[in-house]
Amino acid sequence: MPIKTREVTPRMVEANRKNAQKSTGPRTPQGKQQVAYNALQHGFYAKPSLPFMLATGEDPKELQQILTGLVESFHPFTPAQQTLVEDLAMLRWEKRRNQRAQAAAISGELNTLEIDTEEEERQRDRADSGMSFDRAEVEEKGLIHMPDCPGKFRQILETLQLLLDRVNRKEFYVDSSSALLLLYGHQPSLRGNFLCTRFAEARKQEPEEVDYLKLRMTVTDELIEWNHKYQTYMRRYMEVTPARRDLCFAPTQDVWKLMLRQEESIDRQIERKTRLLWAMQEEDRQRREDPQWQEIVAQAAETRKVQARDQDAELAKKVDDAVVKIVEEFNRIREQSRQAAEKKGRLRRNRVQGQKGRGERNGRGTPRGCPSEAQQETSEPVAGADQPAEAPEKA
Asked: Concatenated DSSP letters for 152-193?
């Protein structure tokens, strides 16, 4: 199937050229360093290059300390053992990265908890400034049947405190039906029904006939109960308790599963490579005690030395040949330069001598109308000038 291509017109080329001048990317070293790792996603398997480690806030000295400590612990004698030790150092470094990622996840959970708590406090402040419930629903059910929120508890406590102050001042003549309706609505509880009945009777009775102590105890019990409910609500949803803070350390998210799986994989690789290194060192120790193996190793070492000498000799020969070619080329260029300088000097001398000769001849005098020698030398003869002219044909 042929691919459809879009024809590029000169106008499009000019527009693209102008647009490219506007988006040239960062030009300063700081800007280039900031965009150097735009394509970085997690960096868990990144090689420990110095620019990358510095850009991600890692200390290259820590990796070198890990490698030095492992070398002092295992004492690798062969390049293969040294390679395994370097692999172990990288695995330990990856495990440290994993541990930092876990700590970052916990810190993120703690920050989220604090941010959520601050947002709930702001919502509480907004709710305290004015109730957001539906007025008709509040009149029907009362505040005690509304969904729990800080504003609800604050309003209930303020209303109960108002009723308690009226009881303490024995202001039974004041109509408290609006406050009781706000609390209990048209469906009061047993205690709410008792309070509504007592306040209605107290308004009709004389102050001496009102059971003051029983009414005050009932309002106080209601106030204490709702105060406890308010404190429980605040402790459960608003306050950052040690239990809620410690819950952030529990691995409950999907990212924790990946990090724990990576940590287990790293531990398995460390264990496997450590056992391989120990087995390799044990085998090398046994080989060093075997005379036949030592003879084979000595022969291999001698062979490597011979090969190294041959390679050095071949490399030295190549260097000598290259030097000889360079010297020959230099001499050839110098000879060409010398010949060109001599030729240029001869031309300059010939030109000077010619100018002197023409000056002497011109000084003795030249007949007027006769061309000079320079003109005779430079002028070219006209074809047929030395032949007689033909007579014109008669008509």
From this structure: HHHHHHHHHHHHHHHHHHT-TTS--HHHHHHHHTTS--HHHH
